[in-house]
Automatic annotation (TrEMBL):
<feature type="domain" description="BTB">
    <location>
        <begin position="121"/>
        <end position="191"/>
    </location>
</feature>
<dbReference type="InterPro" id="IPR011333">
    <property type="entry name" value="SKP1/BTB/POZ_sf"/>
</dbReference>
<dbReference type="Pfam" id="PF07707">
    <property type="entry name" value="BACK"/>
</dbReference>
<keyword id="KW-0963">Cytoplasm</keyword>
<dbReference type="InterPro" id="IPR012983">
    <property type="entry name" value="PHR"/>
</dbReference>
<protein>
    <submittedName>
        <fullName>BTB/POZ domain-containing protein 3</fullName>
    </submittedName>
</protein>
<dbReference type="GO" id="GO:0005829">
    <property type="term" value="C:cytosol"/>
</dbReference>
<dbReference type="GO" id="GO:0021987">
    <property type="term" value="P:cerebral cortex development"/>
</dbReference>
<dbReference type="InterPro" id="IPR000210">
    <property type="entry name" value="BTB/POZ_dom"/>
</dbReference>
<dbReference type="InterPro" id="IPR011705">
    <property type="entry name" value="BACK"/>
</dbReference>
<dbReference type="Pfam" id="PF08005">
    <property type="entry name" value="PHR"/>
</dbReference>
<dbReference type="GO" id="GO:0048813">
    <property type="term" value="P:dendrite morphogenesis"/>
</dbReference>
<dbReference type="Pfam" id="PF00651">
    <property type="entry name" value="BTB"/>
</dbReference>
<dbReference type="InterPro" id="IPR038648">
    <property type="entry name" value="PHR_sf"/>
</dbReference>
Length: 523
């Protein structure tokens, strides 16, 4: 019997009922002896056996996850599901209720129940250094599927049949984060454990988790942690992260050098920073940062932080500090009185500043190149009129967004249209109402239509695809130049900048015209 029913996209299986002929013949002979009544029913004898054959279609099979996308268990089972999730976190070895598998429609969810669960565990890990260990259960098959290292450990030619494996060089929280990814296909990272998780992912060759850790670090990168992450990125051989760290350190060098994380770097990273040609910092700041590092390094080596020991731990790195390029006041009031230099070195450097015939120095005497700031000009022309542009304490403001990470160093502003004049400028940079940078300074305009730079104390890091608000309140000559024919989008080198009007602007500045003609930035 062939039964086919096709309707739309749904096709029922094709079923063949096969009846064995010899068996039917034998049954017919036996039934003929029972009379006509029984013989009349012989044609309705059921088959002795049958076989079901399913026709394979060319349609793609649907997995459970496709049929039940992100489907949550029914309300009646919510409490049970929460109990299992809590069990995973606490590893309390609770015996699951019968048919717990029925609570989860997909294999991914059922597999996740095994995360940090002693149920069916065939291996245990003692993770962490002595005194801070944690015993965690595992399932060899799941681990081997998620990591080639675990596969070699459990199923390779040199596999060891151990019920307990000690891992002293990985933090328990980081190991759990890796297991959660392997079992649950979930990435759960935190700022205080991401580096340890990256180490675990590298050690056990879990590349997608390692990439997620690097992305997390890149998005959370700032001047406060750039030096530490530079050290770690070199250790983990992550060149992209290394490049991002250098971008931050170069542009925000003084903030990075003054951060607590700078004192935690290793000696090789210290040397690479002191050698850096594009370091955008005063040399006295570099000198003071090196002394701070030396003091902490003495503690790490269990040495008294004396002048002699500081110089000892710095070693040849001291000569990478470009002391002869300091301002004379910075040297006389700082480095010369620090005690870190010998008397001969101090005398020679003073002669370097003053004498026509300069002595030879072990220190690098060539100034660092630093970074060259870029300027994004948003107006195509400027003008002045007898009744514009006036200030009187009102705010000129514009919003902007970039497509790449940059560091805003300051703004270019118009000056007086009635001869030379001095202005007092309060500049601000905000994101969603939060002030990221501000400064109060003065600038002198010579009466031309040129722009005049006003700088923040430190460059401000700007993330891509987010609008920031640039504002200025000017006090000075009320009549000044102003921009016209403003552009909503400007290409500046490899950076695209978009502009839009700001509700903070109370003095008429907008996209089409007004003040703040330039953004000055490092990229």
């Amino acid at each position: 019997i062939l039964m086919v029913d096709e309707k739309g996209k749904n096709m029922k299986c094709l079923t063949f009922f096969l009846m064995l002929p010899e068996t039917v013949k034998n049954r017919s002979k036996k039934s003929s002896k029972k009379g006509s009544s029984s013989s009349s029913s012989g044609s309705k004898l059921p088959p002795v056996c049958y076989e079901i054959i399913t026709l394979k279609t060319k349609k793609k099979k649907k997995m459970a996850a496709d049929i039940f996308p992100r489907k949550k268990p029914a309300n009646t089972n919510t409490t049970a599901v929460q109990q299992y999730h809590q069990q995973n976190l606490n590893n309390n070895n609770t015996i699951p209720a019968p048919n717990w598998q029925g609570l989860y429609p997909t294999i991914r969810e059922r597999n996740a129940v095994m995360f940090n669960n002693d149920l069916m565990a065939d291996v245990h890990f003692v993770v962490g250094p002595p005194g801070g260990t944690q015993r965690l259960p595992g399932h060899k098959y799941v681990l081997a599927v998620g990591s080639s290292v675990f596969h070699a450990m459990f199923y390779g030619e040199l596999a060891e049949d151990k019920d307990e494996i000690r891992i002293p060089d990985v933090e328990p929280a980081a190991f759990l984060a890796m297991l959660k990814y392997i079992y649950c296909d979930e990435i759960d990272l935190a700022a205080d454990t991401v580096l340890a998780t990256l180490y675990a992912a590298k050690k056990y060759i879990v590349p997608h988790l390692a990439r997620a850790c690097v992305n997390f670090l890149e998005t959370s990168l700032s001047a406060k942690n750039a030096c530490v992450l530079l050290s770690q990125s070199c250790l983990f051989e992550e060149p992209d992260l290394t490049q991002r760290c250098w971008e931050v350190i170069d542009a925000q060098a003084e903030l990075a050098l003054k951060s607590e994380g700078f004192c935690d770097i290793d000696f090789q990273t210290l040397e690479s920073i002191l050698r850096r040609e594009t370091l955008n910092a005063k040399e006295i700041v570099v000198f003071e940062a090196a002394l701070n590092w030396a003091e902490v390094e003495c503690q790490r080596q269990e040495l008294t932080a004396t002048i002699e020991n500081k110089r000892k731990v710095l070693g040849k790195a001291l000569y990478l500090i470009r002391i002869p390029t300091m301002a004379l006041d910075d040297f006389a009031n700082g480095a010369a009185q620090s005690g870190i230099l010998t008397l001969n070195e101090t005398n020679d450097i003073f002669l370097w500043y003053t004498a026509a015939k300069k002595p030879e120095l072990q220190f690098v005497s060539k100034p660092r190149k630093g970074l060259v700031p870029q300027r994004c000009h948003r107006f195509q022309s400027c003008a002045y009129r007898s009744n514009q542009w006036r200030y009187r304490g009102r705010c000129d403001s514009i919003q902007f967004a970039v497509d790449k990470r940059v560091f805003i160093a300051g703004f270019g502003l118009y000056g007086s249209s009635c001869g030379s004049a001095e202005y007092s400028a309060k500049i601000e940079l905000k994101r969603q109402g939060v002030i990221l940078g501000q400064n109060l300074s003065k600038y002198f305009s010579d009466g031309s239509s040129n722009t005049f730079p006003v700088w923040f104390e430190y460059p401000v890091q700007i993330e891509p695809d987010t609008f920031y608000t640039a504002s200025v309140i000017l006090d000075g000559n009320e009549l000044s130049y102003f921009g016209q024919e403003g552009m909503t989008e400007v290409q500046c080198g490899k950076v695209t900048v978009q502009f839009q009007c700001s509700s903070d602007s109370t003095n008429g500045t907008g996209v089409q015209g007004g003040q703040i003609p330039e953004l000055i930035f490092y990229a």
